[in-house]
Amino acid sequence: MILVVWINEHVIDKTEYWFAKNRRSYLPDGSLWDETIASEISDKNDGSEEFIGRAADKIRFKAGDLVEVINGDWVSLNIVYRSPPTIEEIKNSIRVGCDHTDDCFTTISSEDANAYDHPEVVYLFPPRFPVSDELRKKLEGHLQGNRENKPKVMTIDEAEEYVKKFFRDRENVKISRITL
Questions:
Q1: Nearest Cα to 93, choosing from 157, 37, 38?
Q2: What predicted TM-score, i.e. pTM, was given to this entire model?
Q3: Using 50, 70 and 90 to split pLDDT, how confident is the model at 11?
């Protein structure tokens, strides 16, 4: 039984053969399911292309959705904790230097509430089989428990206010770029 077909485009003359120029997933009927946006290989430098975010209408799953993560020879039922950032979210955040690794979901495993996974968009699918109420509640409990301990992500304006609290003598604090 074929669940999915993946096509990974690689550049022959690159020594890092595991980096893909593009990754796509197709359903058994041959229709395109999803594809990566930012290449893992950049022609301009040694890194990957910049990831500027996904269009909101191109994000198939949202926090709380149950998904099958299919990767190679295994399938796992997970719950979505976080979707890839949208174009607007990246514009309004203090994140700098996003790349292909940011074009992924954060999911929580049905096996362990602390087992996070960061599958790329090409590896997530809706569940093919009904999910029992017991398992659904278990996953929703994992999600709720992790949300309560979630660190706050600040916008640039919030970060400026936060910094001003610690540097009261500097009234004109302006954050234009943060690099970690």
A1: 157
A2: 0.74
A3: confident
